Amino acid sequence: MRHGAFYAQGHAFWSDTANLHQITEATIKTRQQTFPVKVEDAAGNGIGGVYVYAYTASGSWAGVYGKTGSNGVIDLDMVEGNFKFRAYYQGHNYWTDALNLHQTSSATIKTGQQKFSVRVVDAAGNGLSNVSVYAYSSSGSWTGTYGKTGSDGTAILEMSDGNFKFRAYYQGQIFWSDTVSLPKTTSTTIQTQQQNFLVNVVSSNGQGIANTYVYAYTSNGAWTGQYGKTNASGEVNLRLVSGDFKFRVYHHGQTYWSDVVSLPKLSSKTIKIDEGDVNITVLNEAGTPLKNEVVYLYSSSGSYTGVWARTGSDGTVSVSLAHGAYRARARNNWSTQFSVPKTENVKITVK
């Protein structure tokens, strides 16, 4: 009489035929033992942290898997039989041939991984440094591989064989490469269309406002990291990529925003800051005007505007301020809060 079969890892194992009148037990041998599987790159170096799965030769899941160590090897406890092994790496599957584990003592899965260059460039083809680049499968699955461009705008990524596309995140915008096939292709380029964008900051009468900082944001308000100071004509050139942006100007302690603009459809934007004149008079407690007194202007929140002036012989000084709420200070004495353009005359009494 023959005992029942033991089913393990997609294979059936039998005992020898036995006479149950003569024996009380039987042994079924699976010959299970450690079987090393190595996942390697194009140069034969092991790749760590890769999951390996065991299947029967016909493709049934054997229920055995593991993750490779730093040397790229995983030891799987496998029974005797015909198996094949699958590694899932960077969004792709890599297989061994079907192997007879009674005749073979190890297996190697070749991913073809090697260095792949991704270059991020501006409109003129110049490389952009310090840009993060991410690798995806052609279907859009994240591979877990990324890098940052160097001084020449190139990021070197370790990529296996397969179809991939690459994403660069820069100035709050996302840029994609075309889908490329490795190892047929060894490099790709991501175009951002970055170029100069002119922002002009002017007063009510169209006069340029110098030495004013301009900051660039995405249309949803994310800071791009790009800013600059206006020149004597009130102009500043910012290096911006294709996308939708808005600009913030900080002037006289007040914040002003532009509308959202689309690049490269537009190449410039003017931000108009309405201003009004205010006469500030400094008096002593007797009500006598004080000449040569320095007056400093602050926003209502207490931020110094950078504007100051000295009173004339009549104790008065006239200053132009952007529309907003302010306070004026002479020595350690403050005016009450006033608004531009609503207020025309302000007094400070020095005690």
Could you please describe the fold and organization of this structure?
- This protein is mainly beta and 351 residues long.
- The protein folds into four domains: 75 residues, Sandwich (Immunoglobulin-like); 78 residues, Immunoglobulin-like, CATH 2.60.40.1120; 79 residues, Carboxypeptidase-like, regulatory domain (Immunoglobulin-like, Sandwich); 76 residues, Carboxypeptidase-like, regulatory domain (Immunoglobulin-like, Sandwich).
- Helix content is 0%, strand content 56%.
- The chain contains no helices and 34 strands.
- Strands 4, 5, 7, 8 and 9 form a five-stranded antiparallel β-sheet that branches.
Task: Explain the layout of strands and helices.
Elements: E1 6-8, E2 11-13, E3 33-40, E4 51-56, E5 61-67, E6 73-78, E7 82-89, E8 92-95, E9 99-100, E10 107-110, E11 114-121, E12 132-137, E13 142-148, E14 154-159, E15 162-170, E16 173-176, E17 180-182, E18 187-191, E19 195-203, E20 213-218, E21 223-229, E22 235-240, E23 243-251, E24 254-257, E25 261-263, E26 268-273, E27 275-284, E28 294-299, E29 304-310, E30 316-322, E31 324-330, E32 333-334, E33 338-340, E34 345-350
Parallel strand pairs: 3-10, 11-18, 19-26, 27-34
Antiparallel strand pairs: 1-2, 3-6, 4-5, 4-7, 7-8, 7-9, 11-14, 12-13, 12-15, 15-16, 15-17, 19-22, 20-21, 20-23, 23-24, 23-25, 27-30, 28-29, 28-31, 31-32, 31-33
